[in-house]
Amino acid sequence: MALAGALLTGALAGCGDGPVRMGAAAVVGDDRISTAKLDQAVLDCQRQFKNDQVANQVRAALESQRQQQPMSGEPADCSPRSALDTMVNFEVAEAAAKTAGVSVTEGQVDQMIGLMGRQAPAESIVVALGMPKEYTRDVARMNAAQSLILQKLGADGNQQSPASLQARQQALSLFRQAAGKLDIRINPRFGSFDENRMTVSPVTTRLSATESGVR
Predict the structure, then answer these.
(1) Chain centroid to CA 109: how far?
(2) For residue 103, what are the contacts with CB-CB under 8 A and spacing of at least 6?
(3) CATH (domain of 81)
């Protein structure tokens, strides 16, 4: 029991210092993502994924791609960490867009949903990526913000062109700066925010020499 207590005790891991507020899964700037909101999103995603054959097919394809290309990213699932990662990045994308001087209109959100749904329903893609379908517009808005930022930074539509590669590097730097200014704090129950990778990293448990009894 003493060991379990040590594992569960510690300062907040994240970009900022100090604990998150009671009942919060994360605090991003002035916004609070409650554990209740996160739990509901996870439950809804799991239920919808179970009943959505297309979402199952999309996730299987993504997992196959990830296995073939290990650097293609984290596996998609309806887990609390995956959902929280997306919710945090909604806020980061909004902040980065403001810094870049771009704004996303509802029409551009509609266009992005259309692009997302070219091969499968956009809502099914969102569920496959680990969020319930109710967040489809939020995901589209985040993607639209990223696209507008890249365009403003000089991306020319060819992902491998020097201009697009440079724009991606500049955009990543912009997103990292936005995340740093937001002072993101993650409840250690869900992991910690990795500002370099722009993702919520898994929970890690590490005992100090004193806590583990090793001098």
Answers:
(1) 18
(2) 97
(3) 1.10.4030
Tell me the whole-structure pTM to 2 decimals: 0.81
Find out whether 39 and 215 touch, Cβ atoms under 8 Å: no
Q: Which domain holds residue 94?
A: 23-201
Q: Answer yes or no: are the C-beta atoms of 96 and 178 closer than 8 Å.
A: yes
Q: How far apart are CA 25 and CA 80, in angstroms?
A: 9
Question: How many angstroms separate the CA atoms of 155 and 189, rounded?
Answer: 38
Q: What is the pLDDT of residues 48-97, one digit of tens each?
A: 999 999 999 999 998 888 777 655 556 678 999 999 999 999 999 999 99
The strand pairing partners of 186, in sequence order, are 26
CA angle 101, 106, 108 (to 5 degrees): 70
